Amino acid sequence: MKIQKATIAIALSVVVALSATGVVFAEGSNEVRPTNASTSGIRRLEETVKERVTNIKEKVSEKRDAKKEAIVTRVRKAVDARETALSRSLDLAGKILDKLQIRIDAAKNAGKDVTSMSAAMTDARSKLADAKTRLANVDAQKGTAVDKAGFQAIETQFKAIRQDIHAIREDASKIIRTLKSFNSATSEGKNWQKEGSKSAHPATNSAEKD
Fold first, then answer.
1. Strands 32-34 and 23-25, how do they pair?
2. pLDDT given for residue 130 in this prediction
3. Which residue did the predictor score with more confidence, 41 or 172?
4. Within 13 Å, how many C-alpha atoms sit on residue 12's CB side?
5. pTM
6. Distance (Å, rounded) from C-alpha 109 to C-alpha 59?
7. Which of 6, 125, 146, 168 is most buried as measured by Cβ atoms within 10 A of its Cβ?
8. pLDDT surpassing 90 at residue 49
């Protein structure tokens, strides 16, 4: 719209300029008939008009680019915040799984059947590795994401990470329940569940909105 208005204004100035240089339109036709204006003068006028139109387009483009850059910067900051929160949750998950493994080993040495706990631990470790890989992908993608498609790809990674964290929490709960049945329960799993729930769902949703 701005370009159209500017073009109309330039067109009007061209008409005035042509009149001033002696160019007239033949009555009843579309023929343009120069009177006293030279051909080189008309060419200079045409070049001036083209230059003005080009300048206007460049200014509009610069404003559009500046606005887009501001949006991208804001969304990247939101991605950074979510990445940090999820990274802390995964670090905590790893520490809790390590402690639960110690309890599992102790139960095994005590002659307990740890088959189900070992299976749950294997699954939890697998999910943790997958989540860390996806978080590394986010770290690589956020620097090159400049449009909606790029940030949607990052959001897809975030969603998969949250699903992995949920699966880890479920596996940890299974292990804790079994340990309780052996009178060897640990409180670390519950603590991680609470902390992980807070950090896995930060209140930063700008990537989706933008």
1. antiparallel
2. 97
3. 172
4. 5
5. 0.58
6. 75
7. 168
8. no
> In the prediction, which pLDDT does 100 show?
96
Chain centre distance of CA 41? 53
Residue 77 structure tokens: 């900051």
Going by C-alpha positions, the residue among 79, 77, 56 that lies closest to residue 6 is 56
Query: Residues 150, 202: one domain?
Result: yes
CATH value at residue 150: 1.20.140
For residue 58, CA distances in Å to 2, 4, 46, 91 come to: 12, 14, 18, 48
φ, ψ (nearest 5 deg) of residue 35:
-105, -80
- CA separation for the pair 185, 102 (Å, rounded): 12
The Cα 205–Cα 155 span in angstroms is 10
State residue 66's pLDDT score.
63
**Domains in the chain: how many in total?**
2
Instruction: Tell me what pLDDT residue 71 has.
Output: 74
Structure token pair of residue 160: 């998969």
CB 23 within 8 A of CB 32: yes
